[in-house]
Amino acid sequence: MLKSEAIISGPPKASTKQAIARVALSLFAERGYPAVSMREIAERVGIRQGGIYNHFGSKQALLVHLMEGHMRALLVALDAAVPKGGNPRQRLGQFVRFHVLYHLSQPDDVFIAYMELRSLEPEGLARVKELRRAYEERLRRILEAGQRLGVFAITDVPVQAMGLIAMLTGVTTWYRDGGRLSREAVAEIYVKMVTRSLGVEETPTM
Predict the structure, then answer these.
(1) How far are the Cα atoms of 47, 74, 75, 167, 193 from residue 124, in angstroms, in the given order?
(2) What local confidence, expressed as pLDDT, does residue 203 receive?
(3) Mean per-residue pLDDT for 81-101?
(4) pLDDT of residue 2
(5) How far is 82 from 22, CA to CA, in rounded Å?
(6) What are the pLDDT digits (tens) for 12-46?
(7) How many other C-beta atoms lie within 10 A of the C-beta of residue 177?
(8) 60-197, superfamily in CATH?
(9) Residue 48 CA to its chain's centroid (Å)
(10) How far apart are CA 21 and CA 62, in angstroms?
(11) Which of 53, 97, 103, 146 has a CA-to-CA distance to 16 between 20 and 30 Å?
(12) Which residues bind DNA (predicted)?
């Protein structure tokens, strides 16, 4: 069972907890979870090592906190960006734009969310995977709606959804700010790539 927080006298300061999380996120992304010690995190934050345990019961609990926090924030932002109901084609475009732009804006969170799944213990892994499935389900619903209406040419919705998410997330491996294209321009290219892959014809402009 994960030790999420140690019992102390009085509530921990939120700012200290946030600082620990920010430093841990940066170090885990830079060097990988196994190579980072709690002592190093404490030194970067400017507190004693024991002070971390006032907020997180273990390094594993800290990793789960980061990954769960990322996925929960992702789901909240997605639901705000892609309203339920409506035209499946429009919703797919909204999903693609959101996914590309959000992931480019959170490179460390995204890197850890994918690369450090291997570092999670069973309980934490199950919790994070449940949130990942919830995110994937949002896309599957859009694809299923388009399939029912004959808007999308899809053979297997679950496979299509997983393939699209992998393709969209891959933008974080090559895109760098300051290049030929802005983030928004890249997102629009991805929208066209995805819709064309599903057999959607572009609406001619007047």
Answers:
(1) 26, 18, 18, 26, 35
(2) 55
(3) 94
(4) 52
(5) 28
(6) 455 999 999 999 999 999 999 999 999 999 999 99
(7) 7
(8) Tetracycline Repressor, domain 2 (1.10.357.10)
(9) 31
(10) 7
(11) 103
(12) 37-56
Q: Are 70 and 109 in contact (CB under 8 A)?
A: yes
> Can you tell me whether residue 167 is helix, strand or coil?
helix
Check residue 117 and report its DSSP letter. G
Q: Are 4 and 61 in contact (CB under 8 A)?
A: yes
The residue written with tokens 């990988």 in the block is 32
Distance of CA 204 to the CA centre of its chain: 34
- For residue 105, the one-letter residue type is S
**Ranges of each domain in the chain:** 60-197
Contact 119, 34 (CB under 8 A): yes
Read off the pLDDT of residues 128-156 as tens digits, 9 standing for 90 and up: 999 999 999 999 999 999 999 999 999 99
The model carries a pTM of: 0.86
Cβ atoms of 146 and 89 within 8 Å: the answer is: yes
* 16/25 Cα distance (integer angstroms): 14
How far apart CA 32 and CA 95 sit, in angstroms, is 30
Residues with Cβ within 8 Å of residue 2, at least 6 apart in sequence: 57, 58, 60, 61, 64, 121, 123, 124
Q: Which helix (H) or strand (E) holds 52?
A: helix 49-52
pLDDT of residue 13: 52
Instruction: Evaluate the CA torsion angle 9, 11, 16, 17 in order and state its sign.
Output: positive
Residue that the structure tokens 């170090």 belong to = 27
